[in-house]
Amino acid sequence: MDRALAPAVPKPLAVQWLGLVPYVAAWDLQKRLAAERVEGRRPDTLLLLEHPPVYTLGRNSLEEHILVSRGELTRRGATVVRIERGGEVTYHGPGQLVAYPIIRLEGEERSVSHLVDNLEQAIIETLGAYGIPGERLTDQRGVWARGGKIASVGLSVKRWVVTHGMALNVALDMSYFALINPCGHPKTAMTSMEQLLGYAPAVAEVGAVFDVTPAPRTPADVITPPGQPRPDTTPGPKARNKWLTASVTDDAAPSSHPLGAASIFSQLGAGWRALQESMPSNCALTSSGRYAVKHNPAAYFTKVRSACASQDVPLGSTPDIGAAYTFVTPNLCNDTHDCSIQTGDNWLKAFIPKLTGTAQYQAGDTAIFLTWDENDGSTSNHVPLIAVAPSVTPGTKSSASFTHYSLLRTNEEMLGLPLLGSAATAASMRSALGL
C-alpha cells in the first residue's frame, strides 16, 4: 500500500529567469547553488532558462540512442554532454523551457518519485493554462499531449539536494529530435506547444506560468552564469509567479506575444499616454513604414488594450504630456536604427525643447528620461540614460549600477505606485540623480 506523504511546511523558493544559457555554464551554476543549498546558505531555488542546441546523456545512457555521427551533430551546431541525472539521451535547444529546481528534500519530502510527480503535474497545469490537455503514461516518465511527448523529466539527488529537472517543448526546431531515440525510446513521437496551438508562445511567458510547488515564493537575488547578462523583461500572461518576469525576445507583433500581466500602464489606468512617431493609427498592432510596433510596449499588454485605443496615439508636432506618465518613441529613422546618429541627435535637439517648454515641465513637477533599449553588446559598453528635471544638478553623474528595472522603479516611486516585478529589488535612481 502506498504511504501518504504529509504536506510539507511551506518554504521560500527563489525563482530566476536566466534566458539563453550554454549547457555547461548552467550545469556549473547548478553545482554551485546546490553546494550552497547543502550548506544552508541559499533557499530552495528554481532556475528557468533555455539552452543552445545540446544533447545530454544520463549517467547510464547508451550512446547508441544517438542515431548520427558526432560530426553531423557538430554540423547542426549541437554539442553532447554526459551528466549525472537519470534517464537516457534528450535534446535541449532554443524554444524549450528548461527548469532546474535546486531543492533540498527534507523529512517526509524525501521521495524523488514524489518530486517527479510534482514536476509532471506542474507541466500539466502549465499546458492546461494554454488549453492543452497533458497526461502521464504508466510506464514512462514525462508528459504527453495529444499523442506526442511534450516534456521530459530527469533528476539527480546528492545529499538530498536536487539538481537537473525538466524540459518543456514550447516552440523549437523539432528536427533535432529525429537524430536521437528520445529518452531511449525509438518510437517516441515528440511534439511542442507551437505544433498544438498553431502559434509560438514566448518561452519566458510560459515560464511565468510554470509553478513547481504551492510553497510561497520570494524575489530571487540575481543569479547569473559567467558571461550571461540578465535580460530586461516584462511580466508574462497568466503568470502565477508574479515576481518572475517574462520577456519578448524577438521582433514579433503583439499577436504573437499577448502579455496579460500588470504593467505601469495598467497601474495608471487613464493616467498614461504613449506618443508613437509615424504610427499610422491609434494603438497600431502591426509595423508600418518607419513605425515599429516592437518599440511600442503598451500595444503588447492585453489588460490595457481598450485604453490603448485612445491613449496610445501618433506623435504630433506638439507633444501632449498632460498625462501623469508619457512614453515617447521616435520612428526607426530618428531613433538611429535606420538612420545616422547625427539624424537622431538633430531630432532630439528639436524635440527636447518642446518638452522643457511645456507648462508641465515649467511647473517644476515633471522629469524627462532619455534612454535606449540596448547597447552594442560588448561588456564595456553601457546603455545611456539622461535625466532632465528642474531638481537635477547639471552635470550630475552616478557610478552606481542601474538597469531598466531601476528606471521602472524610479518612475513608479515618483508616481506613488506599487513596485512591479523586478523593480522591487532594483536600485532606485532618485537619490543619485536628485529626483
**Largest sheet: spatial strand order:** 7-8-9-6-2-1-10
Average pLDDT number: 80
Global shape: elongated
Strand fraction band?
15-25%
- What is the structural class? alpha/beta
**Whole-number tally of structural domains:** 2
How many E-type strands? 15
Alpha plus pi helix count: 11
SSE string, helices as H and strands as E: EHEEHEEEHEEEHHEHEHEEHHEEHH
Q: Enter the CATH topology name of the largest domain.
A: BirA Bifunctional Protein, domain 2
Helix-strand layout with pairing:
Layout: E1 13-20, H1 23-38, E2 44-50, E3 54-57, H2 70-75, E4 79-82, E5 90-92, E6 96-102, H3 112-129, E7 143-145, E8 148-158, E9 161-169, H4 193-197, H5 203-209, E10 217-219, H6 264-268, E11 272-276, H7 305-311, E12 312-314, E13 325-329, H8 341-356, H9 359-362, E14 368-371, E15 385-388, H10 404-415, H11 430-433
Parallel strand pairs: 1-2, 1-10, 3-4, 11-12, 11-13
Antiparallel strand pairs: 2-6, 3-5, 6-9, 7-8, 8-9, 14-15
Walkthrough of the structure:
The protein has 435 residues and is α/β, with parallel strands linked by helices. The protein has 2 domains: 13-219, BirA Bifunctional Protein, domain 2 (2-Layer Sandwich), CATH 3.30.930.10; 264-433, no CATH class. It has 11 helices and 15 strands. It has helices at residues 23-38, 70-75, 112-129, 193-197, 203-209, 264-268, 305-311, 341-356, 359-362, 404-415, 430-433; strands at residues 13-20, 44-50, 54-57, 79-82, 90-92, 96-102, 143-145, 148-158, 161-169, 217-219, 272-276, 312-314, 325-329, 368-371, 385-388. The strands form 4 sheets. The chain has a 7-stranded mixed β-sheet, sandwiched between helices. A 3-stranded mixed β-sheet has the order 4-3-5. Strand 11 (272-276), helix 7 and strand 12 form a beta-alpha-beta unit.
